Design the sequence.
């Protein structure tokens, strides 16, 4: 039963990581946009850093759940 739960958590964390990656990339593009205001660019840069943190957190959690599901 725990293997099923770990497998489901692995899938969930993988999806969350992919979502954070997409958001991070979008925010990076806004931060680089010279037509955007400095406030918008700064906010997007800050959000990209937060998205990177979330991406790494979900990747690590997915790895743990993947290994746990194998056993």
Sequence:
């Amino acid at each position: 039963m725990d293997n099923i739960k770990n497998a489901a958590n692995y899938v969930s964390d993988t999806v969350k990581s992919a979502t954070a990656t997409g958001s991070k990339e979008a925010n990076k593009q806004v931060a680089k946009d010279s037509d955007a205001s400095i406030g918008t660019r700064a906010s997007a840069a800050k959000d990209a850093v937060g998205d990177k943190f979330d991406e790494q957190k979900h990747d690590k959690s997915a790895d743990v759940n993947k290994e746990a599901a194998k056993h």
Observations:
- The chain has a mean pLDDT of 97.
- The chain is about 90% helix and 0% strand.
- The radius of gyration is 16 Å.
- Residues 1 and 69 are 10 Å apart (CA to CA).
